[in-house]
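user: At home tonight, take the chain set out below, taking as long as you need, and be ready to discuss the fold:
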Amino acid sequence: MIFSFMGKCMVNEGFYFKECLDTFCSWSGQSFNPKKSNVFFNRRAISQTSGLVTTLMGFDKISPNSSYLGLPLFRSGYVKDFHFLLEKLESKLAGWKSRVLSKAKRMVLIKSIDLSLPVYTMQSMKLPYSICSKLVTKIRKFW
């Protein structure tokens, strides 16, 4: 959504966007759910104006740590953005450690589940080497 010009949030752009959405809905017969829709404003947007736009549109402001399809929407460029992969792996391994598993069962779990965890993330973002090595280390310790 476009709500800024030179870093300033513009209420009239929000109004025109709402008008476009309403026109689209009337022409196509489809509708959108404003409770499932969010809007993002940059740091320079004035909070009062951004509040007016969110009220006009009926949308909520998106939080900075939001995710979509399991991936973070906003990346800071640091390794901490990918700690969710390590946490997912640790939770799965912790559940399996409580069970007595043979080596064959461990191998099947590792190949089918653990190695597939980061695949979707790696298709859309480049993982830092340190995260990859930590994932491999945790898998090797489980083995």
Observations:
- Helices lie at 11-28, 47-57, 83-97, 103-114, 119-124, 129-142.
- DSSP finds six helices and six strands in the chain.
